[in-house]
Amino acid sequence: MAQDAHARALKLFQELLESLPPGTAVVESERTRNDDGTIIRLVPANKRAAQFGAHIGDGHPFLVDVFFGSGTTFELENQNADELIGLVRRLGLAVISGKCEQRFGFLGVRGKIQLDGEIRYRATHYFYPRLYPKTVRYEPYLMT
Predict the structure, then answer these.
(1) pTM (predicted TM-score)
(2) Could you say which DSSP state residue 129 is in?
(3) Share of the chain above pLDDT 90, in %
């Protein structure tokens, strides 16, 4: 079951890559340090665009950690694998379109992805101190 989840996620990232012009991004895939899962990421050529990735653990095929930018992570869980991979696809397309940002505050980082114009996925991670707060609004992978 876990191998199927890894294969589906890798296929999704390949499809996202193929939807872009050549040279716009690359897909990277690697096993975790503990060899207990796979990390797949889409890395844009545009340095002002956010990378997008997912971590799929070997023992949890219905749990995916999605991340973007400099590390904002969302944990997604769904017993329906098709719905889960569909949500990862929609989040990836939003990041590719530049519909994401990170706010680096005094004590933490808050990341947001805008989905479908209304729904926002956001997560806050504390204990990432920063002397000068700033907001990074990521650019689309393709500049038109």
Answers:
(1) 0.90
(2) -
(3) 58
